Amino acid sequence: MTPLQIFLIIFLLFALSRVFLRAKGKQISKKEFIFWAVIWILAIVFVLEPDLFRISADLLGIGRTVDVIIYFGLAVLFYLNFRLYVKMQKNEEDISKLVRTFAFKKAKEGKKVKKK
Amino acid sequence: MISKSKIFIVMAALNEEKNISKTLSDLKKAGYRNIIVVDDGSKDRTYELAKAQNVHVLRHVILRGQGAALRTGIEYALSLGADIIVTFDADGQHRTGDLPAMLKPVIDGEVDVTLGSRFLKKTEVPFLRKVLLKGSVWTMYLFYGAKLTDAHNGFRAMSRKAAQKIKITADQMGHASQIVEEIHKKKIKFKEISVTILYTEETLVHGHGSFREALKILFRMIYDRIVR
């Protein structure tokens, strides 16, 4: 095993342990847990057996082995970016809801004061 | 027959201290008493000035966008028992004199929504703005199959029923397209009414026609297509 492999494995195991801990603490949903666990376990398998990169490159018909990592990384990043966008949009809507509720409450309170 | 007491004018206002008082007093002079101003986190005296006019004023503690502000106003109007809700610009772009024509088809029950259009008759519209507005008219046609002459006119009148059906979730300027989409999807009867837009230097500066805004709306429309 090369020093790079050892370093990567340590990092990936650490990442995987975080996923387990957060799942245990119910900070992430079951779906998220499966998604991240699969990603990190796959990464560990590929680091332990770098030949897998060459095999999958051949299987997919990608010329250069390193391109497999780049394409895969890009796909994951796009997906995560999209998810983040969806989540952000939801947060924005929630903030508006909060602000609206607050505005309503204040307006109704104001009316009551006037009536007195 | 619906009396003016059941007609509610809803207005989203952002930093409109220069225009709000005149817009409100014009409306009151014309006999429209139920006015709801939603101050969208203005940094100037918009809130105080609107309050001084003795109308309903709601305040967003932070800026949420015109779409969010209109939704707040419309929901508030519904909670006060409005029969007809009009959305009107706070910056003095819309003419109080156009109100009867906008209201009549809704009062008569001919349609549930009237949309103001500046393109039904010949009006002077600045060239760049015209390109953007016509662009969004075509986009609307492509996306929703809605045939309109003007897409982003903030002047609208709607029956209570229509106001309850139309759901605005787009906080920013995208609400204008979203309202058209909702009308189309929910098969709400509508009609365009010719109105005059008063362009002043100021309304041009902070108007809704910026190219960036248009791109954002387009992106949002595509996104909604994918996600919803």
Give structural notes.
The complex is a heterodimer of chains A (116) and B (228). Chain A is mainly alpha-helical and 116 residues long. In chain B, β1, α1 and β2 form a beta-alpha-beta unit. Chain B has a 7-stranded mixed sheet with strand order 3-2-1-4-6-5-7, with helices on both faces. Classes of the chains: A mainly alpha (116), B alpha/beta (228). Chains A and B meet through α4 of A and β3 and α3 of B.
Order of helices and strands of chain B: EHEHEHEHEHEHHEHH
Question: With helices defined by DSSP (H or I, 4 residues minimum), what is the helix count of chain B?
Answer: 9
Task: Assign the CATH topology of chain B.
Answer: Spore Coat Polysaccharide Biosynthesis Protein SpsA, Chain A
| Most extensive interface, chain pair and sizes | A-B, 14 and 20 residues
Calculate the terminal CA-CA distance of chain A, rounded to whole Å: 81 Å
Give the overall shape of chain A, derived from the CA principal axes.
elongated
- Rounded mean pLDDT of chain A is 88
The run of helices and strands of chain A is HHHH
Topology:
The complex is a heterodimer of chains A (116) and B (228).
Chain A lengths: L2 H22 L5 H19 L2 H10 L4 H51 L1
Helix pairs in contact in A: 1-2, 3-4
Chain B lengths: L6 E7 L6 H10 L4 E7 L5 H7 L3 E5 L5 H14 L4 E4 L11 H9 L5 E5 L9 H18 L11 E4 H6 L9 H11 L4 E5 L6 H5 L5 H17 L1
Parallel strand pairs in B: 1-2, 1-4, 2-3, 5-7
Antiparallel strand pairs in B: 4-6, 5-6
